[in-house]
Amino acid sequence: MIKIGDKLPAGTLQEYVEVEGNGCSIGPNSFEIPKLTAGKTIALFALPGAYTPTCSAQHVPGYVQHAADFKAAGVDEIWCVSVNDAFVMGAWGRDQKTADKVRMMADGSAAFAQATGLTLDLTARGMGLRSARYSMLVKDGVVKTLNVEGPGKFEVSDAATLLAQAKALA
User: Fold this and answer.
1) 17, 36, 46, 55: which one is catalytic?
2) Where is the active site (predicted)?
């Protein structure tokens, strides 16, 4: 499992882009993790799935609500990572009103989740291999804080916890 001091694994995540520009076309675009994190501070949180109850009612809304506070604490971007395709993440982002606040990053094949060692097997619930629920603060590709939830919990990966950690490291 990834730990504090480790670099994020190389690979790609996808994001559904609504407006063409900055070298991005409308629709799903692939982004290389090392390039995307270079020289930036990222507040990354991951969750089991789009449109799931805790993720939609508590997890994403907290980060949307505190987006300006994260910026004030020196965070360049907030990422929500989930094992869903970019189309689903784009639609969920529209539903959650994440535009210009949280980047909805798709880990469609669970490659990032597997590379971090932060997976959750929900096969028995018909959802297959998913991401565990966690949050981390990443500076220049290196994990500075890591908050991994226990099974079925939502206690340490919330926006308030990661925001306090970002302020402490600023």
Assistant:
1) 55
2) 55 (cysteine sulfenic acid (-soh) intermediate)
